[in-house]
């Protein structure tokens, strides 16, 4: 199972690394670490705040729990997708590309190294070839390119390990 990267600090850490593999339109970045922990903590409510009895004590959120990795289960791969507006102007196209990224990564999770992964759209698709914002041709082309790219990233892991 793949978990999602949510914090911008995690995206920034991964994107500071050199891309592991790249193609005409996409680049894949990897960092063999876990996501950062939230700096925000829930605090206990002050005593005597309410006149209805003993104050409620709030527990830490599950994300801030020290046993977070144990509770998360087998998910040791975290994925982030970056599809900037400057390369995909229409939201339909951005959504299509993000869905394809998540699907290809989910299919390849067994071959991927543990850690943080970010797939970034680095160049726009040619609008002359893909006139429609969410055409089947664009979907097939993006998926084929992503499968090739993720396969290269997995082989890179095996060769580098």
Q: Into which percent range does the helicity of residues fall?
A: 25-40%
> Using only CA atoms, what is the Rg?
20 Å
What strand order characterises the main sheet?
1-4-5-3-2
Q: Profile the largest sheet.
A: 5 strands, mixed
Structural class by sheet pairing and helices: alpha/beta
How many angstroms does the end-to-end distance come to?
22 Å
Strand content bin: 5-15%
Inertia-based shape: globular
- Model regions low in confidence, pLDDT < 50 over at least 5 residues: 66-72
What is the count of distinct domains?
A: 1
Give your account of this protein's structure.
- With 161 residues, this protein is an alpha/beta fold.
- 34% of the residues lie in helices and 15% in strands.
- The protein contains four helices and five strands, in the order E-H-E-E-H-E-H-E-H.
- It has a five-stranded mixed sheet with strand order 1-4-5-3-2, with helices on both faces.
- Strand 4 (77-82), helix 3 (91-107) and strand 5 (115-121) form a beta-alpha-beta unit.
- Helix 3 packs parallel to helix 4.
- Residues 66-72 have low confidence and may be disordered.
Task: Furnish the topology, listing elements before pairings.
Layout: E1 2-4, H1 8-15, E2 21-22, E3 26-31, H2 68-72, E4 77-82, H3 91-107, E5 115-121, H4 136-160
Parallel strand pairs: 1-4, 4-5
Antiparallel strand pairs: 2-3, 3-5
Helix pairs in contact: 3-4
Which descriptors would you attach to this protein?
single chain; 161 residues; alpha/beta; Ribosomal Protein S5, domain 2
Can I get a quick summary?
The chain has helices at about 10-15, 70, 90-105, 135-160; strands spanning about 1-5, 20, 25-30, 75-80, 115-120.
């Amino acid at each position: 199972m793949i978990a999602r990267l949510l914090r911008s600090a995690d995206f920034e850490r991964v994107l500071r690394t050199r891309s592991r593999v790249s193609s005409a339109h996409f680049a894949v970045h990897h960092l063999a670490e876990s996501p950062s922990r939230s700096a925000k903590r829930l605090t206990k409510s002050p005593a005597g705040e309410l006149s209805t009895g003993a104050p409620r004590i709030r527990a830490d959120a599950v994300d801030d729990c020290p046993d977070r990795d144990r509770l998360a289960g087998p998910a040791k791969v975290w994925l982030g997708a970056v599809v900037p507006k400057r390369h995909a102007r229409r939201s339909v196209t951005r959504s299509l590309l993000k869905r394809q990224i998540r699907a290809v990564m989910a299919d390849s999770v067994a071959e991927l190294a543990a850690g943080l992964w970010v797939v970034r759209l680095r160049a726009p698709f040619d609008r002359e070839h893909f006139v429609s914002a969410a055409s089947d041709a664009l979907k097939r082309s993006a998926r084929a390119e992503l499968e090739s790219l993720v396969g290269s990233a997995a082989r890179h892991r095996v060769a580098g390990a």
